[in-house]
Amino acid sequence: MNLGERLYHKKKLYYPQMKQLLEAVGNRKRVFLATLQSNTTNTKKVGCWDEIASSVNTADPAGLRRDGRGCKKKWTGLKSAIVRYRSDLMRTGRKEPPKIPEYFDTVMDIIGDQKALLNGIEGRAECNQNASTLKNFFQQVKSRDEDDLQVIRADTLFANAIVEHNLPLALADQMSDLFTKMFPDSQIAKKYAAGRTKTRGLVQVLADSAESSMTSEIQQKPFSLSTDGSKDKGSEQLYPIVIRYHNDTKVVTECLTIATTEGSSTGENIFKALDKELSSRGVSWSNCISFGCDNASVMLGRLNGVAAHVQKKNPSVHIQGCPCHLLHIAAKKGASALRINLEEAIIDIFYYLENSKDPILHLMQNKLHDIITDLLVRFVKPSAISKAENLYLIKHSRRSNQKDREDLMIGERTRAFLEAGKADGSLGNTAQTHFFEDACSFFSTALGYVISKLPVQDQLLAHAEVLNVKLRSKQKFASVRYFVSRFSCLEGDLEAAELQFSNYQIDPLIGIPEEPVDQAWAKIGRILDGEGQPKYSILVKVMKGVAVIPHSNASSEWMFSLVRKNKTEARASMSRKLLSAIIGQKTRMMSRGQVCHTVELDRALLTKAKAWKQ
To answer: pTM for this structure?
Structure first.
């Protein structure tokens, strides 16, 4: 079957289009031909127009059926005739008669469209003849692509395992042969070929994906930032940037990257390193709701500490020193009043406190109040406590306000030890007197430090109690107003927020949550109104923002320790970039409760991993 027949039988819809194109100049055909024949030296080929026009304009499909390919050649001949005609005019200096340029331009456009049309039809016809072959070809390509993705999936999962378990990257060099031996029937195992170099690249792809996801979140949401210095990599000072944000399910803590300072590690240089990393990712300091650090002067110095520079960028940011560290120091201060060294016992207490990573900001003020009360009742007379209008102003160091030795809370085992020593003469009156004096000094010194250093009367902690869903009926909207007014990233319609808050306090759908407070507010955010819209959208936005403020540096300290745990002797030459990638991916997995074999790898990530090149 020739082209004309294929055109007629398989592509009938193109015939009216060809006819319409010719009709655009068909009504002027005679004038056009007469003028053309009187102004050209080659009328023989120009006559092709009349033949083609008459064939198509008479709506004779048989003409196309008989000579579809010849029709295409005649169009090409007509185009050549017009080009030669215009060349003759230019050579002789004659001008085209009126309307001829318009006719010629129209015909040239028709020729171009018609040629493209016929070429397209011919190409489609040839494709139809080979349709089954092409279909099989693309099915084979698709199958190979799926196989390749399965192989890269295996490569990437093993890279995740290396990250999770702190394994040497050199181990990857042996795994290809090992997997082939272990799984001889597996085609994926036979194609597995990820050595240390490729595994390093896959770790970077995973980390880049995690970082991109986190960055897109904190560009739009409030977050907390924490950092601490580490000299794990030789003389280079490393500053992991730990980000805490709400991912609409719970509060997660992840490492964004590891920054380094240029020059000495002053407060200004550390801040510049942090600012550089955030700015390069398009993250605004206005979304930083809290800055967490240790209590060193380089971090909290009023003039040139890192916190001071952060507050210049965002005056409303909450500066969060670490209460765990302060309690440790308080215990050391108290121990300094003793005649013995209790450092080892204090370290145990410190690490116990460090493990409290769940969000308890809404409980912090009560917890600190309980610590102070617990210290007071151990050595201060009940009468002095009950008469005080403010517990923090009690003169606890005054001997007249302290309990007698027999009433001091020193523990039953300690008291039994003292009684036994008194009975056998090993502990005389002087030794026992020194002990009780030391006990009072310990309690008083520790209590004085706690009251002076811990945020026991911090306004933010007082208002943070509004997070407590269990006590919602007792909370005040003034606390919500405090956070909206203080933090620009939590701005919203206060009137709408107040209405939502009032409904939230009496909503029977909100029971007593069993989950942590950050997850409880995520659950409240999924409650819908009668129109299917989030019922507490403004209120939940504020509460999620408040929930990212840490009560301590416990979660950050845990991540800072990962830097030291991952830079081991087996990884002595690891670059900062790779270390940052490993920590970033590791913290993302851990914050989501994932392990290497439960991580879901989507097609987009696998495609990026497949495209990785050294």
So the answer is: 0.65
